[in-house]
Amino acid sequence: MRKKILVGNWKMNNNLKESTSLVNDILSELPQNGVELVFSPSFVFLHNVVKLCKSYDNVFVAAQDCSEIQNGAYTGDVSAEMIKSCDVNYVILGHSERRNKYAETNYVITQKVNLSLSNNLKVILCCGETLEQREKKVHFNFIKSQISDTLFHLTTDQINNIIIAYEPIWAIGTGLTASKEQAQEMHAFIRKIIAEKFGSIFADNMSILYGGSCKPNNAKELFSQVDIDGGLIGGASLSKQSFIEILNSF
Ligand code: PEP
C-alpha cells in the first residue's frame, strides 16, 4: 500500500534557533497515525534537523533543491551528493518558485532528478499549471508534459523513488485552494499517465501529494480523496499548531 506523506516546505524561512525549536515542538506532539512526516528546512540546517529526527521511525528530511551539476566550480551550489552525505532522504525538485524565479526548465529539472536518484535521494517532483492554463483548458496536457519530460526516461526501479506533488501555481501562497474535486481529478489523471507509462502496480504504489494553500480547515477534505496521499505544505508548515492540525487531518 502506498504511503501517506506530509511534507513541510519552509522555503527561505526560519533561522537555526527557529528551525530547531519548530522541529522539537512538532516532534513532542507527534501523533502515531502512520503518516510519514518530512521537514524541508534550508540547506544550512539540514544536518541539524537530520540529527533531531534520527530516532523517529517515520520522520525524514528533504532538501528544497539541488544543483543540476555533479560537482565543481559552481559557487553557491549544493550537490545531490553533499545532501546525501548529511543523511537526508528526500529532495524537492521542480517547485514552481524554482521554475518561475530561477527559470528552471524541464531539462534542468531532469538533470537534477538523475543526480538525485543516482545519489540515493528520493525525489518529490512538483508540477502545476497557471490559472491561465486552467482557464484555457490546457492544464492536463501541461501537467502531462511536465511529468513526461522529467520522469518518463526513468526505469521502473527508479520510479519507485519518485513522489509527485501536484501544486497548481494559482493556489500556492495565495489562499486559493483547488477544490477537492479539482485536486482529485488531477491526481487521478497523474496516476493514469504513470500507469500508462510504467504499469498500474507502480502507479498504485506512488504517493501523489497536493500542495497549494493547504491549511487545517481544508486538509481533511483534500486528504480524504482516493488519489490524494498527503500534502506539500508551505505557509502552514511554519507553525507547530497548524502543521500538527494538518497532520491530524489524515
Ligand atoms: C508550496 O510552496 O509548496 C506550497 C504549497 O505553499 P503554500 O502551502 O503556502 O501554498
Secondary-structure blueprint:
Elements: E1 5-9, H1 16-27, E2 36-40, H2 46-53, E3 59-63, H3 80-85, E4 90-93, H4 96-101, H5 106-118, E5 122-127, H6 131-135, H7 139-151, H8 156-159, E6 162-166, H9 180-198, H10 200-205, E7 208-210, H11 219-223, E8 230-233, H12 240-247
Parallel strand pairs: 1-2, 1-8, 2-3, 3-4, 4-5, 5-6, 6-7
Helix pairs in contact: 1-2, 1-12, 5-7, 7-9
The structure holds phosphoenolpyruvate (PEP).
Concise account of the structure shown:
The chain contains twelve helices and eight strands. With 250 residues, the protein is an alpha/beta fold. The site of phosphoenolpyruvate (PEP) has 13 residues, from strand 8.
Fold and architecture overview:
The structure is a single chain. The chain has an 8-stranded parallel β-sheet. Helices cover 42% and strands 15% of the residues. The chain is built from 12 helices and 8 strands. The protein has a single domain, classed as Aldolase class I (TIM Barrel). By secondary structure, it is an alpha/beta fold. The structure holds phosphoenolpyruvate. Phosphoenolpyruvate binds next to strand 8.
Q: What tags apply to this protein structure?
A:
single chain, 250 residues, alpha/beta, TIM Barrel, 8-stranded parallel β-sheet, binds phosphoenolpyruvate
Listing every helix as H and every strand as E from the N terminus to the C terminus, the arrangement reads: EHEHEHEHHEHHHEHHEHEH
Average pLDDT, all residues: 97
Shape from CA axes?
globular
Number of domains: 1
Cα-based radius of gyration, to the nearest Å: 17 Å
- What's the CATH H-level superfamily name? Aldolase class I
